[in-house]
Amino acid sequence: MQVFLTGGTGLIGSAVVAELQGAGHTALVLARSDAAEAAVRRVGATPLRGSLADLDVIRSGVEEADGAIHLAFGNDFSSEEAVARSIAEETAAIDAIGEVLDGSDRPFAVVSGTPWIPGRASTEQDPLPTEGIVGGRGRTVTATLALAERGVRTSAIRMPRTVHADGAGGFAGLLTQLARQTGVSGYPGDGAQRWPAVHALDAASLFRLALEQAPAGTAWHAVDDEGDAVRDIAAVIGRKLGLPVRSLPEEAFGPLGPVFAMDQPASSARTREALGWRPTHLSLLADLEANLQA
């Protein structure tokens, strides 16, 4: 299968490309710069020069492919306006991919986030949030899954708060970045809130399984650690960086402060049972212990 990917040079995307190629598929990867294009070629994949805003380029890539995976996102969380711009750009790109795949029965796996459900771990059956700072992404993914009714084998791969590798990535990576900037390894509130996590290589294997097996209109959870207490994550970061660890107000975490403060564990029991997904790589806390450098 030839697979078109957006975001194929990022932390998750590069792992997905390697996973696809290891399983005998080929990858056509959107590359927005000379450096990205070179990185794609180095791993034996084919680059397609363009950015997430180049909708005609994206359409041409999908037309050449047997399936598609969307991973790219602007990742500018500096303000609510910046997040809204990234969501709008992502939505337009996903819509363009869906237009080409309409009626083809080809697979289309789109990245998402795990939902948060008060009082329990979220499951694959729970709906995505459609309000708040990241609600636009939930609305887009929900609409994408509905393309199943138009002959597209859509699936949503829901990522936990931290997708990590080599001691970096996700919300834990943002905590590390903030700790380096402020000299304090902080957590919101009492730090008892839980964040799910997964290693990027394990997440990559789920994207491949979904592309190969997932029925149309289904959602799956790429969750290994169901929920690490944020104060435990901050404690490892503080110890590895030699910094004090303490509670900070939500405002210290920028526009994502309210999301950081939520208790949001997630389960992947259905995903493991239905698709045979088995995470095998380091947990988040073990990865930070082994690889985070001062």
TrEMBL record:
<protein>
    <submittedName>
        <fullName>SDR family oxidoreductase</fullName>
    </submittedName>
</protein>
<dbReference type="InterPro" id="IPR001509">
    <property type="entry name" value="Epimerase_deHydtase"/>
</dbReference>
<dbReference type="Pfam" id="PF01370">
    <property type="entry name" value="Epimerase"/>
</dbReference>
<dbReference type="InterPro" id="IPR036291">
    <property type="entry name" value="NAD(P)-bd_dom_sf"/>
</dbReference>
<feature type="domain" description="NAD-dependent epimerase/dehydratase">
    <location>
        <begin position="3"/>
        <end position="76"/>
    </location>
</feature>
<dbReference type="InterPro" id="IPR051783">
    <property type="entry name" value="NAD(P)-dependent_oxidoreduct"/>
</dbReference>
